[in-house]
Design brief:
By secondary structure, this protein is α+β, with helices and mostly antiparallel strands. Helix content is 33%, strand content 17%. The strands form four sheets. It has an eight-stranded mixed β-barrel.
């Protein structure tokens, strides 16, 4: 993915407006140019999607969107606080927002300058609506092979923009559009711990000395308590005896130690003291930002119940009522056959599944044992004596049974990657700490319990499941209600207290996200959408007014 693209002059679009200042005519003429190019800038300010902005204004009847200072000030405040979500304020034209939020700044503009300001403000709002709902980056542009997500729907973005401007409180509306999942809020809390520590760099370090632990007394204990409070790990109101190392302080120390990858013994020795005196780890802040962004790619409008596969942690979780109800170990794809990141719907199970050998494996077979059968791809019939390596002619299929590569059950969410969750006969592999061992699918350690939980609202109980598994007949079972399934590749997560857990970047995907995250985004990938027709206006050639449009990608018009 290219981090930036050269600015290439598209045109000086000379748009005329009558002396009475009919902005709607100027705007209608400008929007025609918007529909012709997906990558435009106005007076050097890039537009995320000119076509979406065009439709936004068409739906407004070509009226300007920003006439009062309050919405501008509210948007500016959100943008200036966007670093708490892992963004940079520069992602949302913060300098332009600051300039236009000054008293009288907007009223002083006329003609095309007033129009340009309105479009730039609307683009800042569009970016905020887009980035907080879908993420700043397009995951497919980052890695088309291993990331998957549909293009962003323009209708949802435009609805967010209208809703924000029509709401009594722009910030409340944007913050309340959808409920963000607990794992996003936890990681955001971890970011606040680390980012807040930046403000403490100027403080004097805590003095050294003997190890401080439960029961210790003295001024060093009081200083420790205050420093942990500033770091967000201790109670806001000090106890009656702040110089005494009590149970509450011991737990605060443990929370700090867990959040910084230290042994959580609740005592402050040289290693913990050094971490308290230098609590800012910029590499961890970057890791948090990377993973907050990844979370945004798939988290929009999640219902209370879903399946969460945490690929880099080798775990899967069943979430009920927005809380983890059950978890199991999993095995995921190897480095050369990675488990992709995407969201889909788990809609059925297959009991006693067959397994069709992947072509990559089939090519290595000279002949097959009696555990497998050959199926002629042309007729769909079983054959004997065929050449198993002829993958164009034959499929190699393993019949149901306890030794089947998929075990006794698989969990289906049809997708272009042909990835699913399933049982496995190789149970011993779940004892390993690092479990990137499969060909891309997700093997489940306790699949029968998983099946039981998924089907608990249907007529299928464990006894009925077991009765099918006693035989060899393949059985398809639909869920009473499909569940979203999220396959997330996350190299950092946090607990409810904001204590960070960093995982190894086993697939090496972090650098590409980190590089793109700090670069400006030129445009968004918007789903195909039938935009409203534009009105046409005939500008008055006797009057002068212009909006400077530049194209961001010289290859497109």
């Amino acid at each position: 993915m290219k981090a930036s693209l050269p600015l290439v002059l598209l045109s000086w679009l000379t748009l005329m407006t009558p002396a009475t200042g009919r902005a709607s005519e100027l705007l209608a003429s400008t929007l025609e140019a918007f529909r012709e190019s997906r990558t435009l800038a106005i007076d050097g300010v890039p537009l995320l999607s000119a076509a979406v902005l065009a439709d936004f204004y068409v739906q407004r009847g070509y009226s300007l969107a920003w006439s009062k200072p309050a919405p501008i000030e509210a948007l500016l405040e959100l943008v200036e606080q966007s670093d708490t979500e892992g963004f940079r304020p520069e992602d949302f034209h913060v300098e332009r927002l600051r300039a236009l939020s000054r008293p009288g700044a907007l009223d002083a503009l006329q003609g095309s300058a007033r129009l340009a300001a309105d479009l730039q403000l609307s683009d800042a709002l569009l970016r905020y609506a887009h980035h907080t709902r879908y993420g700043k980056l397009d995951p497919v542009a980052i890695d088309r092979k291993w990331n998957d997500r549909a293009p962003v729907p323009a209708e949802r973005l435009i609805a967010d923009m209208h809703g924000a401007l029509e709401a009594g409180d722009l910030a409340d509306f944007l913050d309340g559009r959808f409920q963000k999942p607990f794992w996003y809020q936890d990681l955001k809390r971890a970011l606040s711990h680390y980012a807040g520590a930046r403000q403490l760099k100027a403080l004097e370090p805590l003095p050294g000395g003997s190890v401080l632990s439960l029961g210790s007394r003295g001024e060093r204990v009081a200083q420790l308590r205050e420093r942990l409070r500033l770091l967000g790990y201790s109670e806001r109101t000090p106890p009656e005896r702040p110089e005494t190392f009590d149970a509450a302080l011991s737990e605060a120390v443990r929370a700090f130690q867990r959040g910084h990858g230290l042994g959580a013994d609740g005592a402050v020795g040289p290693q913990t003291l050094a971490a308290i005196n230098d609590p800012v780890d910029e590499s961890r802040i970057e890791r948090i930002r990377i993973n907050l962004e990844r979370m945004r790619w798939l988290y929009e409008d999640l219902p209370p119940d879903y399946v969460f596969v945490d690929v880099a942690d080798y775990m899967a979780h069943l979430v009920r009522g927005r809380e983890i109800a059950w978890s199991t170990r999993v095995i995921v794809g190897k480095e050369d056959s990675q488990t992709p990141m995407f969201r889909d719907r788990l809609d059925h199970l297959v009991l006693n599944p067959t397994w069709t050998m992947p072509v990559s494996i089939q090519k290595t077979f000279s002949k097959v044992s009696d555990k497998y059968i050959l199926i002629d791809r042309r007729t769909g019939r079983r054959v004997s004596g065929g050449n198993a390596t002829d993958y164009k002619r034959y499929r190699v299929v393993q019949q149901p049974g306890p030794d089947n590569a998929l075990g006794r059950v698989k969990f289906m969410f049809p997708n272009r990657h042909a990835v699913y969750m399933h049982d496995t006969p190789s149970k011993a592999l779940f004892g390993r700490s690092a479990r990137a061992l499969s060909h891309g699918c997700v093997r489940v350690q306790n699949p029968m319990k998983f099946a039981e939980l998924l089907l608990e609202e249907s007529s299928w109980d464990r006894a009925r499941i077991d009765s099918v598994l006693e035989g060899a007949k393949t059985r398809y079972v639909n869920l009473s209600e499909p569940l979203p399934v999220l396959l997330y590749y996350l190299t950092a997560r946090a607990d409810a207290e904001g204590n960070l857990r960093v995982r190894r970047d086993v697939y090496g995907r972090d650098p590409a996200v980190a590089e793109a995250l700090d670069q400006p985004v030129q445009r968004a990938r918007i789903a195909a959408y039938e935009f409203l027709p534009l009105e046409t206006t005939a500008p008055d050639p006797a009057l002068e007014s212009s909006v400077r449009l530049t194209r961001l990608d010289g290859r497109e018009r």
